Amino acid sequence: MTALLMLIVLVSSSDEANAAPGMPGVVCAPPGGKPGDPVAGFAGPQLANAAAIVTVGVKMGVPQRGQVIAVATAIQESKLLMYANSTVPASLSLPHDRVGSDHDSVGLFQQRTSWGPLAVRMDARKSAQLFYARLLAVPGWQSMSLSQAAQAVQVSAFPDAYARWEEPASALVGSVAGIVCTSPGTSLATNPKAQLVIDRALSQQGVPYVWAGGDANGPTKGGFDCSGLMVYAFAGIGVTVPHQTQSIWATFQPAITDRAQLQPGDMLLFSSNGTAGGIHHVGLYLGDGKMVHAPETGDVVKTVEKIWNSPYWTREFIGAVRAGVPTPR
Hints:
Layout: H1 3-8, H2 45-59, H3 64-78, E1 83-85, E2 98-100, H4 118-121, H5 124-136, H6 146-154, H7 166-177, H8 192-202, H9 226-235, H10 245-251, E3 267-271, E4 279-287, E5 290-293, E6 302-304, H11 311-316, E7 317-321
Parallel strand pairs: 1-2
Antiparallel strand pairs: 3-4, 3-7, 4-5, 5-6
Helix pairs in contact: 2-3, 2-5, 2-7, 3-6, 3-7, 8-9
């Protein structure tokens, strides 16, 4: 059963987000959940509505960051419940979970008449399309904080209210996408900082490679380059990584050149000529010969397996550096 179908068959309900939301700053669901369990304190129709919002975002090509913004906005506006409005009598005849009375606002996003027809605003998927269309029209939305981006769309009287829902929204988007806060194939239970760095990097799989893209808050210019992905991953533990591969190498010396000494969470550096001046690429080591990286133009953030069986990677590898994730004693 897909993650989306698992969400739709849930039947319980909850008004508040009171469960562990997952990993701060990471789009992933807490490990150990089972079909029927709440996600970040939400259940039943709330999860089905979150699934609808995320599914529409995927179909429209909205980056994962935009999906988190949309879900967080719906949490703030309606707790992910479909609202009719007592001042809009026609809304009471449409499927709904609750009845409100704020002006003429209805639906998951509390959209007013100016947004479109009533039946559209009270349909989870169609109302999400309306939200995304306006979000994508906001210049530079991907570089904004969640509150700034949501406020640019909603123009709310409480512009700072959206930020508190970022972690629950990230957990919900991760659940729909089937992303769990674990790293299969690695053993990091004794190194939680490395786990967080890895989870942040893995959460960006599928995001396009963009030269000079990425910062501590996520993709910029529509994606990441190899060092930008490291900047984002390590920002989760408060470590500043230079946005340039040779600077990464110089900043976190001494280097680790013995592959047997590598630990998950190390940054692997690759050089075209075996010297620091030839370093051109960086990836994050996952253990067991696996690496997550942003490869090149036309590709996306992804995981590579068995890198030590590859003549290219073994030839280009100059060493690794360790930043903020020391080996546990």
